[in-house]
Hints:
Low-confidence stretches of chain B: 1-44
Structural class of chain A: alpha+beta
Order of helices and strands of chain B: EEEHEEE
Strand content of chain B: 25-35%
Largest sheet of chain A: 9 strands, mixed, barrel
Largest interface: B-C, 55 and 54 residues
Number of domains of chain B: 1
Strand order of the largest sheet of chain A: 1-2-3-4-5-6-7-8-9
Strand content of chain A: 25-35%
Structural class of chain B: mainly beta
Number of domains of chain A: 2
Number of helices of chain A: 2
Distance between the termini of chain B: 71 Å
Distance between the termini of chain A: 20 Å
Shape of chain B: globular
Low-confidence stretches of chain A: 1-40
Oligomer: heterotrimer
Radius of gyration of chain A: 21 Å
Helix content of chain B: under 10%
CATH superfamily of chain B: Nucleic acid-binding proteins
CATH architecture of chain B: Beta Barrel
Helix content of chain A: 10-25%
Radius of gyration of chain B: 23 Å
Order of helices and strands of chain A: HEHEEEEEEEEEE
Shape of chain A: globular
CATH class of chain B: Mainly Beta
Strand order of the largest sheet of chain B: 1-2-3-5-4
Amino acid sequence: MRQTRRFRSWRFAPVLGPALLLAACAAEAPEQPASGTDAVRGLNGSWEAYPQRSFGLGTADEAEAPVPPPAPVPEPPLRPEYLETWQAERARNAELTRQGLPPVSSGMACLPEGMPAMMLAIFPMEVLETPGQVTIVQEAFNQVRRVYLDEAPLAPEDAEPRFSGHSVGRWEGDTLVVETVGVKDYVRFRNVPHSMNMRVTERISLVTDDIMQNQVTVEDPEFLTGPWSWTWMYRRWPGYRMQEYVCEDNRYFEDPELEYQRLRID
Amino acid sequence: MAFAPRRPRAIVRAMAWRPRARVTGWCLALLLAGAGGAHPLLAHHSFAMFDTTSQVTLSGTVTSFEWTNPHAYIELDVAAERGAVTHWSVELGSTSILMQGGWKFNDLKRGDKVTLVLNPLRNGDPGGLLVYVTLPDGRELGNGPGRGRGTR
Amino acid sequence: MKVPTVAVAVSLAMLLSAPVQAQAPPDLSGVWAPYRGGRGDDPSLAPPPASPIVLKAPYAERYEERRAAEREAVERGEPLATDAVFCMPYGMPRMMSVALYPMEIIQRPQQITIVTEAFSEVRRVYMHEPQLPVGEVPPGYYGHSVGRWDGETLVIDTIAIKESVPGYQGMPHSDRMRITERIRLITPDVLHDEITIEDPVTLERPVTYTHAYRRMPGYKMVEFVCENNREYVDENGVVRMRLREN
């Protein structure tokens, strides 16, 4: 599962002298200056959630907190006709969990989190900037999302429903503004219901060289009384090698009678 | 928690990239121009469940169109004589392959009346592999490039 | 514009070293579809034929038996279960020769990332690094890949593919299998990936085959999530399709 710190030492001291220079020469091939959507802005690399999701993972520099962590995700501003049901389900799931009967989840079936939950970065995240596109890979469930910088946003009715939706982005100064539509209606964050008209806006920028913030806003007038906003943050993890994630030994299943997660023991 | 600055690390400013020429208007139909020349290096696993030498024609009402992977499905209620209804599950290719064959995710929906031709399951269960379908608007769509009425 | 300190090293390298590649490497970034030759296409664009798989004993015999059993099962209409029934991705090297599905190359100087549309598989090639010793890499579906430029050819070396990941054409392989790829542009729009598999344990000699791609400008890669897998293996080991009742 999660990589431990020992794999961080995969940082190779390059072989000496000429080899280093040769490598540097090949890597730093002279290229034309950036402009417009071709500019790459320093989001490239491996990132981990900030603050860390659990103790002992990631860079494990718990004592250092370079910037204040973001506030917790607020309650969803659900419309009254949905709020009670959502609260009741949350209470029921919490009670089941307390009894040691964890409720069924998409992850149980090895299904990816989709948007916006994938941007929680429960495992590390990789950002790749190339001209006209920002590609984000989440190690959890190996989720790949692409943000196109040269495209107009799709109308929701034209967007093939997906786990990660369809994303277009533009740079506003040093902030990457991303709009996502077309998320399947059964792909939920915190079990909050939504329509196919849900729109997720992200404003992504560097707070410091090593801390990235993502101001997320979910809008869906059919289900929410207003925008639902919060901030997620990530810390750069230089040298971290993204691991593969293949759901090849999934032993979870749904108990047919009581509808909770169970583990198959052979 | 003390806010101690991290050991400074130089950010490796990514290199500027050459602007790429962009060609717009790529016609996916060119993908279909292979005329069956390509050999699939990895033969599909499940075609063998279906009798690809025989075809069954069904007319019915769509109960759901599942635009999913690894396969899309058309679920169909087929009325027989004397009002009995048989429900059929019709397998299509993956969404990517279907899109290469001209499909869109919203080409079918619950309630649509369609006629389709399929290769039936060998074991006699009411299921099969789509050969082609006639949509309510009269369009005919096959099951991805290389499969369909005109390609046999 | 800031001058990278390594620019000084670059100048030294040019003085000290053998002919140094001063021009930028070819840009392979973009979306590529498996090449399907059309009428009138230059025949040199098509990939050359693959070399045969020559296995060592006893792998050769077992392999032939398995292939025969597979063929026979298909003819009966009861195909043997494969990884695909369980939505397992292809892994290396098979992901690099999937018919009908495009792939995307995301090329950056230190890392070339390849995403194939079938199963949304991701592999990463770390550029200009030495390869790791086989024993130091946890075996997986994608292993560990390092790359370098040999003129205009991208040469990739991959190790540490798990034994349980089905091999090219179903061939058996050990964890010492090594995959070498030579990727180059035959024309600006046609790319060849010449794949060579070596395995000191199972193979008598290397196997080489080439998969060809054509650029798909403007195509947007789509998602592939295995969320509606209806295939299963019944009590007799036969692959079946789960039907719905309504």
